[in-house]
Amino acid sequence: MTVSDTTAPTQFGQALRRLYFIRFAFAAAWAALMLATAGAQGPVLTALLVVYPLFDAAAVLWQLRSRHRAPGAPQAAEWVNVVVSVAVAVALGWASTASPATALAVWGVWAVGSGIPQLVAAVRQWRSGGQVPQILSGGISVLAGGAFLAQGLQGSGDIAGVGGYAAVGGVFFLISAIRLSILLRKKAS
What we know:
Blueprint: H1 3-36, H2 43-65, H3 76-98, H4 100-124, H5 132-153, H6 161-188
C-alpha cells in the first residue's frame, strides 16, 4: 500500500463526512418547510418538490467529481442517480401542477429510482466507512417509494408524508457523518 492508497480513502471519507452533514441540514430544513406548508399547492408546492431532487442530484454530482475520490472507482450507480433526480425534478414540476396525487406518485417513482443506486453506491463505497446507514437509507427509500407510488395511484392527495421521508433520510446522513467522524479519528490516532 502506498501513501496515496492510505490518504485517498481518508480524504474521501472527510469529503463524504462534510457532504453528509450538509445533506442532513438541507433535508431537515426542507422537511420542516414541507411539513409547515403541507396544505399548500401551486408555486410553493412546485418549488419545494423540484428543489429536493435537484439538490440530491447536485450532491451526488459533487461526490462524483470529488478530487479525493479513488481513481477508477465505479460511478455508474451515481450517474444513474443524477440523471434520474434531474428527470424527476422536471416531472415533479409538471406533476405538482396536475394534482398532489400525481406528484406523490412521481415522488414514489423517484424514491425507488434513487434508492436503488444509493444502495449500490453505498455497498461499493464500503471501504470509505459510515456506509451502513446509507445502505439502510437506500433500502428504506425503495420501500417508501413503493408506498408513495401506491398512494398516488390510489388518488391520495396527502403529500406531507414526503417531508417525513426527507427527515428520515436526513437522519441517515447525520448518522453516516457521525460514523465517518469516529472512523476518521480512529485512523488519525
